[in-house]
Design goal:
The complex is a heterodimer of chains A (236) and B (305). With 236 residues, chain A is α/β, with parallel strands linked by helices. Chain A contains eight helices and nine strands. Chain A has two domains: 117 residues, Response regulator (Rossmann fold, 3-Layer(aba) Sandwich); 76 residues, no CATH class. The two termini of chain B are 15 Å apart. In chain B, helix 5 packs parallel to helix 6. Chain B has an eight-stranded parallel barrel with strand order 1-2-3-4-5-6-7-8, surrounded by six helices. The chains are: A alpha/beta (236), B alpha/beta (305).
Amino acid sequence: MIVGTQKPLEEIWDMIKGFRKVLVLGCNTCVAICHAGGGKEAEILASLLRMKASLSGVETTVRHAAIERQCESEFFEPVMDEVRASDVVLSLACGVGVNFLADRAGDVPAFPGIDTEFFGAVEKAGIFKELCAGCGGCILHLTGGICPVARCSKSIMNGPCGGTSDGKCEISRDVDCAWYLIVDRMKKLGTLEKLFEIQPPKDWSTGLYGGPRKVVLEHITAPEPPEKGKESQGGM
Amino acid sequence: MKSGSNLEKVLEGGHFAVTAEVGPPKGTSASVVQKKGDILKSCCDALNVTDNQTAIVRMSSLSGCVILKGMGLDPVMQMVVRDRNRIAIQSDILGAVALGIRNVLCLSGDHQKFGNHPTAKNVYDIDSIQLVKTLKTMRDEKKFLCGENISGEVPLFIGAVENPFADPFEFRVIRLGKKVQAGADFIQTQAVYDVDKFAGWMKMVRDRGLDKQVHILAGVIPIKSVGMARYMRDNVSGVSVPDEIVTRLEDAKDVREEGVKITLEIIDRLKDIDGIHGVHVMAVAWEDIVPVIAERAGLLPRPIL
């Protein structure tokens, strides 16, 4: 899932205080799981903003709504009238949702109410951990299912570096050394010798550094001509 | 000869090498580098110039190396992969060779979190082992990483580092093997205080025959104060300072003299370990102790060739 954390109220207020009609739009998938941007959080944030407006003596209407996913067109239909009637939409979705909303919100600005942090998992209630960097060219089969790109502070392919101590990373005693985990796991799997080979430099062009990425499923997009009026789903 | 550097000649000639470290200034003064070079030139065979060590911005290693080279010394250009991608790395190597630099030491580099620009973006396009291999390919095949040809020779003596005290202990020697396989000609280790543990590591190195394939220089950091000893014991990841050393310094009347004595004892024991071909003395902000240590350890005259 995509993990996000809500921005501080003051920062949000600074963004929206000049607008009279504000819509706080939650997203009920990933960011709802991490208690940052679901419908419930949208409702709470809307009330906080109403209080803030009232305390600041600013006349502002703050409404709230939420949709299942802000990364798929079909879910926007029920709220589009509300979006168009607003002066600003504060999206509590991840950055994908904010971008996607901005693409369809016409002249209504779409602002971010959360900071999108990473791709991660729920380690335990209230703790979310980064586990994937979304960089393409996955090599998890060579590293015991533990990602050195996302989980090593230096994203090195032939670790561990000299900074590991007691299984922890040099950057913090709270951060596990990914390569320590990899060595340990490969030993358990009986495949340690896979780590004896020198991994070549990674092709980063499939990651953030190769320019904006797009996945096109030709078996879905190619055979039929696009339906009239249907919005493009590319460009994520 | 791969590079013809003084360090290569010393090591290939079977001599016990002494190298030391020059930290460039947080400024533009060449004389800071020259002064350190002057202090160290009569007690070392080659001088490492650090590359923005602990991620603190300093004069570039290449510039420091050129200054030392101008004094007739043999510099070792340290290069971390933290701050440069494969394009910048290969470009800097071409420039370094053009300017007469012959030794390059490949490192990961301390994470930028420790430095004076902790919000910087790091690079880590390639890792230190891939850097070693890149330099070997540039030297031996005269090819860039992409496979295109390089015009001219790339005579380099390629170094790497290893920290025998980092975890997991039994994997460190495997990783050293990867560095040797990648093309390392010499290794400079993290500072040794726990000589027994280091000797155990060296046995694993010998068992794999790695000591016959690469020159290993053991790292030594003279300790100047009790505070420094405690700091290194408690805060420097991957450095193992036994409590006994800290206690000796705490109890000493003359802490600096005790620090020197401890260093001499360590060097003495290191010299006796099979497969150790030299020592690398990292006297950070205490360069003038290096000639004293070299003299008292019986390592003079230098350079040995």
